[in-house]
């Protein structure tokens, strides 16, 4: 069974210690009630990941764990077979003891777009909301963060993260909790909060922005990346049914509209620092993720449109600061 005791110990004397009033009960309930049918199989994989500490570790320019020289060919094949049981791998890539986990997303490209615009993460306490398997969390740690916490309710993502962590160092100050943001109390504690690829999946985007603000300390920084559409501050696309074959896409605002939403939710210094059309090279099927991917979601006759006829995915990155003098919802 996956244990969260290390996280409890690490935050006991930190500015997150008040989270201990509610978190153990919530995660205890998750451990008792979680019913995902594949979780026992995935946990068996984790229990078999007993490998030597890597001879090299690069989290600054990639997520590379070991050179591949420590394991025999047979040991590498065994490790790869274990990691493939945790497929599909969507966010990455990871390089593990000479094994290239070629994920659906080139998440390193997103990091390269985002990282030049954020405040330095050195000695910061960071929250990554909707973190997936944790790829960006590792890059945050590599950028100098003091502590990185990710939340994502997916059991598969939790097991993928745990697999990588056990191959690196189980005691590092980086943790993924199987929670949604609605299960977090207002912590007012993080220096930086990331929400990347989440907002358009929320039925109430304003509530999501308020929940993000509630996790930041006064003056803390929000890094928000989401799908947008072209238009003025009154433009918001609400897909009638699906968007890119996804049935959980609710609101795609314009840059101007989302800037207004952020200001209304108590953020200042709001700026859009990047606009990028998702390319077929950035999101695609691989041997580690063999399901449909972006090419299947776009109109085969016009890749500038989704199969439903909506504008193809356009992603915007926003940076904003929690304004200590501005009450959310009031100018």
Automatic annotation (TrEMBL):
Instruction: Cite a single Pfam family from the UniProt record.
Output: Methyltransf_9
CDD domains tied to this protein: AdoMet_MTases
The broad enzyme category this protein falls into is: transferase
Keywords of the record, alphabetical order, are: Transferase, tRNA processing
> What reaction is this protein's catalytic activity?
carboxy-S-adenosyl-L-methionine + 5-hydroxyuridine(34) in tRNA = 5-carboxymethoxyuridine(34) in tRNA + S-adenosyl-L-homocysteine + H(+)
Question: One MF term from GO for this chain?
Answer: transferase activity, transferring alkyl or aryl (other than methyl) groups
Q: Which Gene Ontology terms describe the biological processes this protein takes part in?
A: tRNA wobble uridine modification
Binding locations of carboxy-S-adenosyl-L-methionine: 91, 105, 110, 130, 152-154, 181-182, 196, 200, 315
Enumerate the InterPro entries for this protein: CmoB, Mo5U34_MeTrfas-like, SAM-dependent_MTases_sf
Instruction: State if tRNA processing is listed as a keyword.
Output: yes
Q: What is its EC number?
A: 2.5.1.-
Q: Which domain of life is it from?
A: Bacteria
How does the record describe its quaternary structure?
Homotetramer.
Q: What does this protein do?
A: Catalyzes carboxymethyl transfer from carboxy-S-adenosyl-L-methionine (Cx-SAM) to 5-hydroxyuridine (ho5U) to form 5-carboxymethoxyuridine (cmo5U) at position 34 in tRNAs.
**PANTHER family given for it?**
METHYLTRANSFERASE, TRNA U34 CARBOXYMETHYLTRANSFERASE
Give the HAMAP family listed for this entry: tRNA_carboxymethyltr_CmoB
Family per record: Belongs to the class I-like SAM-binding methyltransferase superfamily. CmoB family.
Q: What's the protein called, per UniProt?
A: tRNA U34 carboxymethyltransferase
